[in-house]
Structures are given as structure tokens and as C-alpha cells.
């Protein structure tokens, strides 16, 4: 496994003062098609109880994964869902989404989860918005003989001589995400050469000599070899195909040109994004 770049997440805030650690790649080049990885990990409710009040998006896909705690999602499409530990949620915002994510009452004992932004190709940025989640059934998983378990969060995976597929299988550019949990000294081997971008975000324990909070960008054309230490580990594995298009970013909007960003702001101000009932 060849590590191309190592990035440490940085403390930040978003929403109503929610404390997060962020990997920012809004230029659309470093982690294409991924633009942002936010991790919320705290046992102090003051760090997250403000939540994320109603706000808009255009031109991206948002992907939420909850490990501990939970949020209630609402949007202008009429979706209202409790996203709890083990669940994932996906919005392909397209031409516009207005949504909120507020902590569930039972999240007061702590929260650990992610929101990840994926870019969309120019041809898809103004299509109708789409929504999906995994609340109806547990996500599929498979474990190898060393105690490494892959949970398919999005897309299709082949691991430990088994093929599994997440119910969320229509992400932009065919992106795929998985949560890997490693027992002490657990290991895993994968071939991911069909992707252009492969990244590992360590969220628990340590892996390959790096501790939690680090992202490893690796060579997608080489086989991936993962080995946890004596404490075990938990990682997100993020795979995707590059879009290779210009990126213009302003807050919750990601388009291809500055003029498109200005139009997004005007549309939001004029009520184009609707309202949450």
C-alpha cells in the first residue's frame, strides 16, 4: 500500500456552534469527488446540542453516517427521519435542498458521526433532488478470519470472498464508502483499482502508524493492506471516480462558476428552495 498524502483533521465549528473536526478539500482537486469530511465526536452535549438549523445546499451530495447518538433530519421534500447509530443518509441536492439536522433527545449521552460532501458533475447539478437512508434494515457487513469487519455504507464491495451491497448505491460518480472495524491486530486486503480516489479516515484507535483524526490518501492502483495495532481500530474507507471539472464554492453551494454561485444565492433569497413544514 502506497500512501500519497497524510492530512490531519482540524478543529472547526458549523451549524449552531457544533464542534467538529474537518478535512477540507473544497478546491475539488485533492480528494475528487470528495469535498469535505466532518467528524462529530464528543460525549459533552454542549458540543453538539445546537445542531444544524435549516440551511440550503445546491450542487453537492451530502452523506451522513452515525456511529453513536443520532439526529432528526427534515427537508423541504417532506422527509422527516430519525437517523440513529448504524444508519446512513444520503441527499443528492441537485438544484436545491433546504434541510435541518437536530440532535435526538437520547443523543445527550454522546455523539459520534460524519457528514461527508461529494461533488456532482456539471450535468447533474441542476437535476431534481433525491433522498435515501438505511433506516428500514441494518446495513450489510462481512467479517474475515482476523476480526476485520466491513460494513457497506454506500456502493458495492467485495471482501473476504463475499460480495455485499449497500441499499444506497446511486452516489455521484459511483462513489463507495465503508466502515471498517478491526479487532486487535486485525488485518484486511482489498483491491480497489476500479476507483481513481481511495482515502482512509481513522476514527478509532490507530492504523498504519497513524492515530484517530488522520486521513491517508493512498494509491488506488495498488492493493490495499490494512493492519490494526493491539488496540484495534475503526476507519472510514472512501472511494470514488474523479469528476475533473472546475469547482466554485461558497458556503453550502458548490457549482462550476462564480456566476452559478451568484444565481444560487439569488434563488435561495427568492424562496426557490422552498421551506420545511
TrEMBL record:
Residues 178-274 form the Pirin C-terminal domain. This is Pirin family protein. One of its GO terms (molecular function) is metal ion binding. Belongs to the pirin family. The keyword GTP-binding does not apply. It comes from Pseudoalteromonas tunicata D2. InterPro entries: Pirin, Pirin_C_dom, Pirin_N_dom, RmlC-like_jellyroll, RmlC_Cupin_sf. Keywords: Iron, Metal-binding.
